[in-house]
Design a protein that fits this description.
The complex is a heterodimer.
Chain A lengths: L1 E6 L17 E6 L4 E6 L9 H11 L2 E6 L4 H9 L3 E4 L5 H9 L20
Parallel strand pairs in A: 1-4, 4-5
Antiparallel strand pairs in A: 1-2, 2-3
Helix pairs in contact in A: 1-2
Chain B lengths: L1 E5 L7 H11 L4 E4 L8 H4 L2 E15 L9 H5 L5 E4 L2 E4 L9 H5 L5 E16 L2 E8 L7 H8 L10 E4 L6 H7 L4 E6 L3 H16 L4 E8 L6 H9 L3 E6 L2 H8 L4 H4 L1 H17 L9
Parallel strand pairs in B: 1-8, 1-9, 2-7, 2-8, 9-10, 10-11
Antiparallel strand pairs in B: 3-6, 4-5, 6-7
Helix pairs in contact in B: 1-11, 5-6
Classes of the chains: A alpha/beta, B alpha/beta.
């Protein structure tokens, strides 16, 4: 199973990026092979709909779970349609988050924010 | 004669100027293009003549015809489309209704449906015709509503039209000024005000529109950064509106100052005369 974490830098010591859609990179960790792979996030620079595009990207890269501090409504809709499991990351480097996930210590992400563009409207 | 009133930020006095100009002109049209927060109607309290819903086109996919090539997903500059588990997901609120996805689909799997995003209202207030655009909360863009407003037949009749623009310098402002004969920039005497004045200054230059500035909230004897900016850039200063609590009070109570008090009527009439002098090819006096 592949898990994905939005990261600020391409290292396991990187902090988890506060934004999912506009994270510069994603860390893809394969639990079977224990391999780490960092990919660029082209959605980071998009004018709008970054969460949608980033969600499509990680789904296309075979993600089955996402560890993130927060997630917008549109991204959540895409990820849920693909049955991606959502977990809330902890305030620790990406590598520590992988360890916490493997140990079953990360809670399921329940709070989905309305996105930053609509300011919670509707 | 179509005069657009704009500013880089909210709260500088666009509506104050546009409403009072319309009120002191004979048989004018006041057009509220600030569709995200139209408030000119609060002053005119127009008697409604018509209301019309405004729709845009949103794509929908026929899953029988869609083969999942994703050309539409890749094409969409706003990322309004996702393709998940052999199904296209359309995000209505993100879609800007450009119609590009329908054009690039090689299988004819995409068609368009109507989605209501807001409405326009036309009303009468004395001899002023009041048009108001209203964008529903959460919609991507008010441009289609502004296009409908600017297609109003009164705009072809030669009567004076005052276009109350949205704040800022984004697409909806560009759309609001595109047919204007002249642009009035309303500026506040603050550094923040200057920063935002510069944004609309660049915009009207880009559009090649003739323009001038009205300095609002002027304090006598105090430094005015907006005035300094105008002098540096050699921008025409059309006039000054004082920082006046009486004017502010009338306005915040939803009164049209030019109608309530003769001295403000005179002030806005003479300001408007200055504007009309600057409008290219404008020979008729309106006040």
């Amino acid at each position: 199973m592949k898990i994905v974490i939005p990261v600020d830098e391409k290292t396991l010591d990187s902090g988890v990026c506060a934004s999912f859609g506009r994270a510069p990179y994603f860390l893809i960790y394969d639990m079977e092979t224990k391999e780490n792979n960092f990919i660029d996030n082209p959605a980071a620079k998009s004018t709008g709909g970054a969460g949608i595009k980033a969600a499509q990207l990680i789904i296309d890269n075979g993600a089955k779970a996402l560890l993130t501090p927060r997630l917008g409504q549109n991204a959540a809709e895409v990820l849920e349609a693909a049955e991606i499991k959502l977990y809330k990351s902890i305030d620790a480097p990406a590598g520590k988050n992988i360890e916490a996930f493997v140990a079953g210590e990360l809670p399921v992400l329940k709070e989905i924010h309305a996105g930053f563009h609509r300011h919670g409207g509707r | 004669m179509k005069i657009a009133v704009l500013s880089g930020k909210g709260g500088t006095g666009k509506t104050l100027v546009a409403v009072n100009f319309a009120a002191v002109s004979k048989g004018s049209v006041y057009m509220d293009c600030d569709v995200e927060e139209p408030n000119g109607h609060l002053f005119f309290k127009p008697v409604e003549i018509l209301e019309e819903e405004i729709s845009v086109k949103i794509p929908q996919a026929d899953s029988e015809l869609c083969d999942g090539c994703r050309r539409c997903v890749d094409f969409c500059n706003f990322n309004a489309l996702a393709y998940i588990k052999d199904k296209l997901i359309v995000f209505d609120d993100v879609c800007h209704s450009c119609g590009g996805c329908v054009l690039v689909c090689p299988n004819g799997a995409l068609t368009e449906r109507d989605k209501v995003i807001g409405k326009v209202k036309k009303g009468g207030s004395g001899d002023v015709t009041v048009w108001t655009g209203i964008l529903n909360t959460g919609e991507a863009t008010g441009v289609p509503i502004i296009n409908r407003l600017l297609a109003a037949e009164e705009l072809r009749s030669g009567t004076p039209v005052f276009i109350d623009c949205p704040p800022g310098s984004a697409c909806i402002v560009m759309e609001s000024i595109k047919d204007a004969d002249y642009c009035v920039l309303v500026a506040e005497p603050t550094l923040f005000g200057v920063h935002n004045l510069n944004m609309v200054y660049e915009l009207v230059n880009l559009f090649g529109k003739p323009f001038g500035v009205i300095l609002n909230k002027c304090l006598e004897g105090e430094e005015n950064p907006a005035e300094k900016f105008c002098l540096e850039k050699d921008i025409k200063i059309l006039g000054r509106i004082p920082f006046d609590s009486e004017l502010g009070l009338l306005n915040s109570n939803g009164h049209i100052a030019a109608i309530e008090d003769e001295k403000y009527g005179k002030m806005f009439s003479s300001l408007l005369e200055e504007v009309i002098k600057e409008v290219p090819n404008e020979t008729t006096a309106y006040s």
